[in-house]
From TrEMBL:
It comes from Micromonospora sagamiensis. This is Pectate lyase. It comes from the Bacteria. Keywords: Carbohydrate metabolism, Lyase, Polysaccharide degradation, Secreted. Its main location: secreted. The keyword tRNA processing does not apply. The keyword Secreted applies. GO terms for cellular component: extracellular region.
Length: 448
């Protein structure tokens, strides 16, 4: 069987690396290898998903030599993005940022690492919060009063520290092993952004909120995604790895009978954002992954939230793969490898229009094809050419909608009302998706 690899993977594989390549000096006195700079200036291939619509996605490809930066610390990253984290989101100067090593969002001004206690408001402590808002004492109503206000001030402190604001016309690329840990890349009102070849690790929330009205028993909710795309267009997220590292959700304590949730999404696309392509990423061992649309309210999101997901690996993850509201979302040639704790894969939300084609689902014990969709108030989804390899069963084609409807009411319709056209070629047959995605998805699989 001939396997055709197109788009970003073909561009990456076409680069020839020459040992001892000539380097060019970066403005900060470091050096960026020429082949790295050449790679970092790549743009999204024509037709490669929704991010290719309109003007396309070129990131910082037009950057001058003075705007090519090699960064090795949080301070370096903030400086490369414009110099002031509070205002960097408005810095539209084309810029290329190459990350070398580990950049930690908890790095303080003196280079030492901060911890949650350093960011906490003087009037906040978790033991006091737990004592005050225990449902047995407080009841099942939202927290109010001085301790909740102190928690909110603590969140403000952490946001200033660990939320790194990205401006328009930016490319951020990692060298081999590059990791962004303990931080959120916030792409808000910042169109034309490219993020590639990075590992995102443990974007933890020091001050989760107790939400007693979230579900029948309440829930802890955290604030920080690993990448958040808001009010932006033409964003390409490619060949990254998303993980909680050595701080997984399963290791968190239980408070008020609910898991103490310190992580939010991996890659959320919300607040009227649109024209996003996420390709060849690896999401591993996480709970909440991808929220496309954050509210059921009919309003500005209508006609927005157009996202393409292709050749991504969803590996031992639990939910929101993705959960969709309103948007036309093209999900093709992704590999889902699902196991313990799995909740659902594709969430069909209010006015969503999901087109799921030629994906491959590898299911652990106790997971059935009927579990892969979840109705969050939507009405239909187009699903064609998908395969399932259930536990101890041979792989084979599956009609996801029919499988869902056989065990759930009300039924979902089988026509989302549109057909994707922004693709670099025909989707691979579902049976070969694990081979290609397993080899190519994630950080450190590009020639850097």
């Amino acid at each position: 069987m001939r396997i055709r690899i197109t788009g970003a993977a073909l561009v990456a594989l076409s680069l020839i690396l020459v040992p001892g390549a000539v380097v060019s000096a970066a403005p900060d006195g470091t050096s960026v290898p020429r082949h790295v700079e050449r790679f970092a200036r790549q743009t999204l291939p024509a037709g490669d998903g929704w991010a290719a619509a309109g003007p396309g996605t070129t990131g910082g490809s037009a950057a001058t030599a003075e705007q090519v930066h090699l960064v090795r610390s949080r301070a370096d990253l903030v400086r490369a993005l414009g110099g002031d984290n509070a205002t960097n989101r408005t810095n539209a100067t084309p810029k290329v940022i190459v990350v070398d090593g580990v950049v930690d969002g908890f790095e303080g001004p003196d280079g030492d690492l901060l911890d949650c206690a350093d960011l906490a408001d003087p009037e906040y402590s978790l033991p006091a919060y737990l004592a005050a808002y225990d449902p047995a004492v407080w009841g099942m109503v939202p927290p109010t009063g001085p301790l909740e206000a102190a928690r909110v001030r603590s969140v403000t402190n952490q946001t200033k520290q660990t939320q790194i604001n990205v401006g328009p016309n930016t490319t951020i690329v990692g060298l081999r092993g590059a990791t962004l840990t303990g931080l959120t890349l916030m792409v808000d009102t910042a169109s034309n952004v490219i993020v590639r070849n990075l590992t995102f690790d443990d974007a933890r929330d020091c001050f989760p909120a107790w939400s007693p009205t979230d579900g029948a028993a309440g829930n802890w909710n955290s604030q920080y995604d690993q990448i958040s795309v808001r009010r932006s267009e033409n964003v390409w997220i490619d060949h990254n790895t998303f993980t909680d590292g050595d701080n997984p959700d399963r290791a968190q304590p239980v408070h008020f009978g609910r898991p103490y949730q310190v992580h939010d999404g991996s890659l959320d696309v919300t607040h009227t954002a649109s024209l996003v392509t996420a390709s060849y990423n690896r999401f591993t061992g996480r709970d909440k992954l991808m929220l496309i649309g954050s509210s059921n309210t009919v309003g500005p999101d209508v006609g927005r939230l157009r996202v393409t997901l292709h050749h991504n690996l969803f590996d031992q993850v639990l939910q929101r793969l993705p959960r969709v509201r309103f948007g036309q979302v093209d999900i093709h040639n992704n590999w889902y490898r699902l196991g313990t704790g799995f909740d659902y894969a594709i969430g069909v939300g209010v006015q969503s229009a999901v087109y799921a084609e030629n994906n491959h689902f590898t299911l652990g014990a106790g997971i059935a094809a009927a579990d892969l969709l979840h109705d969050w108030g939507g009405t239909s989804i187009t699903a064609r050419g998908n395969w399932v390899h259930a536990h101890r069963s041979p792989p084979g084609p599956v009609d996801l909608v029919a499988a869902y409807n056989a065990t759930h009411d009300p039924d979902l319709g089988a026509d989302a009302g549109w057909t994707p056209t922004l693709r670099t070629g025909r989707p691979l047959p579902a049976p070969v998706v694990p081979i290609v995605v397993g080899a190519l998805a994630g950080a450190d699989r590009l020639p850097l």
